[in-house]
């Protein structure tokens, strides 16, 4: 979501894989030119990151009738939790930060190698306390890793290992989000509750699951990339909580209940970059495939349940972008046999339609000011037990002002729309009410990259 943060993964990667001479001259995006720190292993080590602070005004509505931010669905009480319901306001301050550690080395034979570790301060959506008076709770500002990976590079290209984006995201084209907090791919996502949070299927959304990535050198403007992951898990260990085998285990290939997940996923992409008459042009096309986890039968009181089967997943991606005289215009199109959030479709459900998404954006930069607009329109099966199909659409306008190196002021306005006839977004189940939810988010904030 945070495409525009100056300490973004894309910028960090660009510095990591710059020629070694450039790195020695301070090409790292987090620090001004100057000598880097040196580790005990003689690697160049740089520490950077970002901090952001936002004021956000958020209005959420159900069926376009409730212009308040909405009441929560009443929840029945239990022995440890009382009956709950809540209404949320509209204004809030929010803050976020990441710390990035980047190390690079070069062997005598010319082989380049290094590592990147990103720590983020937004592990949880909200604060959770299991019951009143509990001594244990999960803070929403817990620190965890965003990405952590190593690389080796040479004339053969670059190979990365670890928790990193797919090849699609590392080589995407046409995703114009270089203004405000990112516009339709910006911080509005963090300002609305899950019931109103429109799904996205951008190239960054498959996640940072542990994978191997190959990025080729560029020949006559062309380069290619590919990535492979066994599953959606990341980090070490098995992913099994308390050693109990469930669908949350990294290697789970069949389980009962829950949503199907991707297995043996492969992303591939080809890109061309060039210019004609002062106009910079880029184009990319890609594809992905993945197996789906299988359903497993459950025996309860002698009754055997049906095993849910899922379809193998495949998707296509295409992007175009043009840049000239301060203007940037770009677009992307996604299509394939998948549901929202890069999830496999359940076979035999009421709605098994394929997905499609359009993204378009434009920006103009004049000195320290960048203004722009973008939108996306995503259509999927949504809740597969409902036959209507789901539409999720966001449009946004915004601006960025560079106050000083590393310091920016950002603002944007986003309009968010979700609709699926026969599905109650507030209750999270089929129903006649709340088939459409809308949100309007205004953000004014500041960023500092260091």
CATH class category name: Mainly Beta
Number of helices: 3
What is the CATH third-level topology name?
Answer: Porin
Radius of gyration equals: 23 Å
The count of β-strands is 23
* Series of secondary-structure elements, N-terminal to C-terminal: HHEEEEEEHEEEEEEEEEEEEEEEEE
- Share in β-strands: over 45%
Q: Indicate the structural class.
A: mainly beta
Full CATH superfamily name: Porin
CATH architecture name = Beta Barrel
The total domain count is: 1
Task: Give the strand order, joined by hyphens, for the main sheet.
Answer: 2-3-4-5-6-7-8-10-11-15-16-17-18-19-20-23
User: Describe the biggest sheet?
Assistant: 16 strands, antiparallel, barrel
Question: What's the mean pLDDT score?
Answer: 86
Signal peptide: 1-24
Keywords: Signal
Protein name: Porin
GO cellular component, one term: membrane
Short description:
The chain is mainly beta and 450 residues long. The protein is 4% helix and 46% strand.
For this entry, give a set of tags.
two-stranded parallel sheet; Porin; mainly beta; 450 residues
Overview of this protein structure:
This protein has 450 residues and is mainly beta. It has a single domain, classed as Porin, CATH 2.40.160.10. The chain is built from three helices and 23 strands. The strands form four sheets. Strands 2-3-4-5-6-7-8-10-11-15-16-17-18-19-20-23 form a 16-stranded antiparallel β-barrel. A two-stranded parallel ribbon has the order 9-12. A hairpin with a 6-residue loop joins strand 7 and strand 8. The longest helix is centred in the N-terminal third of the chain and has 8 residues. The radius of gyration is 23 Å and the shape is globular. The chain starts with 8 loop residues before the first helix and ends with a strand. The N terminus is likely disordered.
């Amino acid at each position: 979501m945070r495409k525009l943060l100056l300490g973004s993964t894309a910028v960090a990667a660009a510095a990591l894989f710059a020629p070694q001479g450039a790195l020695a001259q301070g090409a790292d995006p987090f620090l001004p030119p100057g000598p880097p720190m040196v580790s005990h292993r003689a690697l160049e080590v740089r520490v950077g990151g970002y901090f952001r602070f936002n004021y956000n005004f958020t209005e959420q509505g159900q069926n376009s009738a409730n212009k308040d931010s909405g009441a929560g669905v009443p929840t029945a009480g239990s022995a440890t939790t009382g009956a709950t319901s809540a209404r949320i306001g509209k204004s809030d301050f929010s803050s976020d930060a990441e710390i990035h550690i980047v190390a690079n080395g070069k062997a005598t034979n010319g082989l380049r190698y290094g590592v990147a570790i990103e720590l983020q301060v937004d592990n949880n959506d909200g604060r959770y306390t299991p019951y009143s008076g509990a001594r244990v709770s999960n803070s929403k500002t817990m620190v965890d890793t965003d990405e952590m990976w190593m690389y080796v590079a040479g004339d053969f290209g670059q190979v990365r290992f670890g928790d990193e984006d797919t090849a699609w995201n590392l080589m995407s084209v046409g995703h114009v989000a270089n203004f405000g907090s990112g516009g339709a791919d910006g911080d509005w996502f963090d300002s609305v509750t899950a019931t109103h949070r429109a799904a996205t299927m951008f190239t960054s959304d498959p996640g940072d699951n542990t994978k191997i990535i190959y990025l080729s050198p560029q020949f006559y403007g062309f380069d290619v990339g590919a990535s492979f992951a066994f599953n959606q898990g990341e980090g070490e260990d098995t992913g099994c909580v308390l050693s109990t085998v469930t669908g949350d285990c990294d290697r789970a290939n069949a389980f009962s209940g829950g949503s199907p997940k991707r297995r043996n996923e492969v992303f591939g992409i080809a890109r061309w970059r060039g210019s004609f008459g002062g106009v910079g042009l880029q184009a990319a096309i890609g594809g992905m495939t993945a197996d789906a986890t299988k359903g497993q039968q459950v025996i309860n009181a002698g009754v055997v349940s049906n095993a849910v089967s899922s379809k193998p997943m495949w998707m296509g991606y295409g992007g175009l972008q043009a840049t000239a005289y301060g203007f940037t215009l770009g677009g992307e199109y996604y299509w394939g046999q998948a549901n929202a959030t890069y999830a496999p479709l359940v076979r035999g459900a009421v709605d098994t339609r394929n997905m499609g998404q359009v993204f378009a954006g434009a920006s103009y930069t004049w000195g320290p000011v960048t203004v722009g607009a973008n939108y996306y329109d995503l259509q999927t099966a949504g809740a597969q037990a409902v036959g209507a199909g789901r539409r999720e659409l966001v449009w946004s306008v915004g601006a960025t002002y560079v106050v000083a190196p590393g310091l920016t002021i950002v603002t944007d306005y986003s309009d968010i729309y979700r609709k699926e006839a026969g599905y109650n977004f507030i209750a999270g189940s089929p129903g006649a009410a709340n088939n459409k939810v809308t949100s309007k988010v205004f953000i004014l904030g500041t960023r500092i990259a260091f």
